[in-house]
Amino acid sequence: MAGLDDVFGDLFSGVDAVMLFAPSGSYYERFAKVDDLDVIVVGTENDVGAPEFVELPLEFDDVSERIRFGLEGGLEKGVIDGGDELVCATSIFEEEIDTVSRVRVSQDAHTGIYDLFAKSRAEPQVIKAVLELAIELGKKGQKGKPVGALFIVGDAGKVMNKSRPLSYNPFEKSHVHVGDPIVDVMLKEFSRLDGAFVISDAGKIVSAYRYLEPSAEGVDIPKGLGARHMAGGAITRDTNAIAIVLSESDGLVRAFKGGEIILEVDPEAY
Ligand SMILES: Nc1ncnc2c1ncn2[C@@H]1O[C@H](COP(=O)(O)OP(=O)(O)OP(=O)(O)O)[C@@H](O)[C@H]1O
Ligand SMILES: [Mn+2]
User: Fold this and answer.
1) Whose CA is nearest to atom 1 of ligand 1?
2) Are 175 and 225 within one domain?
3) Which residues form the signal peptide (predicted)?
4) What is the interface pTM, i.e. ipTM, of the complex?
5) Per residue in 249-267, pLDDT tens?
6) Cβ contacts of 52 within 8 Å, gap of 6 or more
7) Residue span of the structural domain in which 99 resides
8) Are residues 144 and 265 in the same domain?
9) Residue 88 lies in a domain
10) Domain assignment present for 115
């Protein structure tokens, strides 16, 4: 009579490595004892002291996002390669691992999002909130019309020094942060207007309506993109900020860091 192992066994056959998402110490120990098994631990912290560890910059509630991020981080660190067959074990319902997913690592899936989140000066949750806002804005537009927007995140003092106001700053005396629902509504409303939003490392909205005057010139951005993308890209070479840009003309969201484009996403795909 066939047992469950016969049916589910395929899930584990021929895997190159196991990725354990935030395992407890005792859970991890059990895997460390299995012969010839490559075990990679993924989590916000390396509680179990695993030699192969991929850091998540934040807890992802969505499991597919969590796994995708772990894979990106693994590729970035060189602990996995394109084409690898992996078993990812994580928890959905309980604290303890309760779910197993088999994935094939695709090199193409390497979007650059890990670099953007994990190795930027601004806090990861701030970057995530701004990216989500830009994507949402790109999906819906403003009253049905496509809109463009430019968000400069992190290193705000320096960004302010390299820019000037186009109009009065509605955030002058306020202490509001990205991610607050009311602020998201305000940002969407103001996105119709010219210039850039400047956001601090911790997510405070420092200013709207900033005209960027970066000194870096000749930034290498894809052809066909105009002044908004050029200014956004260039300021990230001058400062430790990142730029998240929603294009009014092609509807894509792009992220720049160190003067280079590191991410390009189609809001419709989210
Ligand atoms: N240096 C700058 N700083 C801040 N905002 C800028 C700057 N240059 C342009 N913008 C903003 O970008 C808007 C669009 O400019 P432009 O069409 O040249 O950019 P683009 O890169 O082609 O963007 P899109 O794809 O959205 O059209 C301008 O109306 C202005 O609000
Ligand atoms: Mn344009």
Assistant:
1) 212
2) yes
3) none
4) 0.99
5) 999 999 999 999 998 888 8
6) 38, 39, 40, 41, 79
7) 4-110
8) yes
9) yes
10) no
